[in-house]
């Protein structure tokens, strides 16, 4: 496991510095790195996807526990470092992990090759939300996500109805998975230190999830929440027959996840 001084040296030797535009804040706290791997409970031979490996600190730890690691890195300079240090021990996919921001890239899907996998990563902040949603909504075989993300995103994932942070991301994730906040990760655990606090979360797909068409439900929720402050009667029509417990004077952000699923299952669409 790389120390902070080793991470600095790996970049300095190549005349590199962390790139803010790519959200490069390297997690170097050994306790947090071990905790992330432990929570993921990676078994020898298990396929693990890491997005944004950086200099390979977490990657090396995953290799040490016997994981079959697929790492996606958009920065060629950092990809070169991972290749030099780990070589064939890691399948490295260069480029954006997402295709048009909505689905996993063809190169990444080819590397996964239909195998079940876990996501274990210190996710770059700007891709955290789309990656988390994509891996739940797309039938790509992700069996769990164990990630360090911005605390604000973690708050949205866990938000109850009625609050400002309650919205499509949290609703979609809560409908499809169990979400657990494992730890708060302070800025000093990263280099360079970000201006925000982070959180480690575990997202485990529900074994008994009976949502018939998750992408369609996600589209419904996003459409509904584009008018979150309007009453349901205004959105759907005052003469609508509502599911039990729902009335036309309520607003979308007051509905629980279960109520939103019930509303979606009626087949109604916003006007």
Runs in which pLDDT lies below 50 for 5 or more consecutive residues are none
Biggest sheet: strands side by side, in what order?
Answer: 4-3-2-7-8-11-9
**Do you know the CATH architecture of the largest domain?**
3-Layer(aba) Sandwich
CATH class of the largest domain: Alpha Beta
Count of alpha and pi helical runs = 11
Multimer state: single chain
Give the H and E element order: HEHEHEHEEEHEHEHHEEEHHH
Strand content: 15-25%
Overview of this structure, please?
By secondary structure, the chain is α/β, with parallel strands linked by helices. The chain folds into two domains: 202 residues, Vaccinia Virus protein VP39 (Rossmann fold); 52 residues, no CATH class. 38% of the residues lie in helices and 21% in strands. It contains eleven helices and eleven strands. It has a seven-stranded mixed sheet, sandwiched between helices. A hairpin with a 3-residue loop joins β5 and β6. α6 packs across α8, α7 packs across α8 and α8 packs antiparallel against α9. It is elongated and about 70 Å long. The protein starts with a helix and ends in a 6-residue tail after the last helix.
């Amino acid at each position: 496991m790389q120390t902070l001084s080793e991470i600095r040296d790996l970049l300095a030797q190549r005349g590199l510095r962390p790139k803010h535009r790519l959200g490069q804040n390297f997690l170097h706290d050994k306790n947090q790195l071990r905790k992330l791997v432990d929570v993921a409970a990676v078994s020898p031979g298990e396929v693990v996807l890491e997005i944004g490996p950086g200099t390979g600190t977490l990657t090396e730890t995953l290799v040490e526990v016997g994981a079959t690691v697929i790492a996606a890195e958009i920065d060629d300079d950092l990809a070169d470092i991972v290749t030099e240090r780990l070589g064939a021990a890691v399948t490295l996919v260069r480029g954006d992990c997402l295709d048009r921001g909505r689905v996993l890239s063809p190169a990444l899907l080819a590397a996964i090759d239909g195998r079940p996998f876990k996501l274990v990563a210190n996710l770059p902040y700007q891709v955290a939300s789309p990656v988390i949603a994509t891996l739940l909504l797309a039938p790509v075989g992700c069996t769990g996500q164990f990630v360090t993300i911005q605390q604000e995103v973690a708050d949205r994932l866990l938000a109850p109805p009625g609050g400002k942070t309650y919205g499509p991301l949290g609703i979609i994730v809560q409908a499809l998975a169990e979400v657990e906040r494992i730890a708060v990760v302070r800025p000093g655990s990263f280099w360079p230190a970000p201006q925000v606090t982070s959180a480690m979360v575990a997202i485990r797909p529900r074994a008994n999830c009976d949502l018939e068409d998750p992408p369609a439900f996600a589209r419904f929720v996003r459409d509904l929440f584009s008018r979150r402050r309007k009453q349901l009667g205004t959105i759907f029509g005052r003469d609508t027959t509502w599911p039990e417990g729902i009335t036309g004077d309520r607003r979308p952000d007051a509905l629980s996840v279960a109520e939103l699923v019930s509303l979606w299952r009626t087949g109604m669409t916003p006007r």
